[in-house]
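Let us work through a complete example step by step.
Step 1: write down the sequence.
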Amino acid sequence: MTEVGTSTGVGASIGVGASIGDRLRAVALGLTGVEERETWHKPTFRVGGKLFLTLGPDGSTATMKATVDDQAELVASDPAVFSVAAYLGRYGWITVSLDRCDPDEVEALVVDAWRQAAPRPVGDRRGRSGGRKRQPGASERVGASVAR
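Step 2: predict the structure and record it as tokens.
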């Protein structure tokens, strides 16, 4: 894995006529703490070491972190654009067909993906409401089944 670039948290700008992949790269690198790495022969984007976005090697797709609920809603809303991601789909990840998408919507989804992956201190400042639900630990699950 080779580090390709890092973000300083300063907003990136991109020229008119840029590909959607270039726009998504600029959005991702404009977010606090993001680094770009070449992994699996394609650009990947991470915050705090956690993956939140990949761009397809040919530039036709992007795969990003989402919630399981958001994934279901997006895929149902436009299956020609959104699909369940290979390998990580069971965790809510989506794949977006970039030649059929609304670039502004996908840019917002990249920011949402970053919010989900960002470390807690960043997360506390980013205005996410509610946060992730706490999963009961193994001892709590065992205790609950014994108490029944």
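Step 3: interpret the result. The CA atoms of residues 3 and 37 lie 5 Å apart.
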